[in-house]
Amino acid sequence: MQHTVTPHSDKLKQNLKQRLARIEGQVRGLQRMIENDTYCDDVLNQIASVQAALTGVARKLLTQHMHSCVKHRIQSGDESVLDELDTTIERLLKR
């Protein structure tokens, strides 16, 4: 697998960082819920919220990836990126 640096716009970085900070807070809240013996259904609902938030981050990053990295590599003649993208999408859908 090719690992390269992908420059992201400041706007995208800020958006993703804010989303991840919220998710981090949600995960800390989950830890407190477990420590406090919170009702299981409430914990499971919070877990579902965290998963949905992570899916939102993945969706936003995947869209950016397709419109920048994938597009650029295809334009430069590197169609192997399509196999890489397929593997990534399969991994994201395995939930």
Automatic annotation (TrEMBL):
InterPro entries: Metal_Tscrpt_repr, Metal_Tscrpt_repr_sf. Transmembrane segments: none annotated. GO terms for biological process: negative regulation of DNA-templated transcription. Pfam families: Trns_repr_metal. GO terms for molecular function: DNA binding; metal ion binding. PANTHER family: COPPER-SENSING TRANSCRIPTIONAL REPRESSOR RICR (PTHR33677:SF3), TRANSCRIPTIONAL REPRESSOR FRMR-RELATED (PTHR33677). Belongs to the FrmR/RcnR family. This is CsoR family transcriptional regulator.
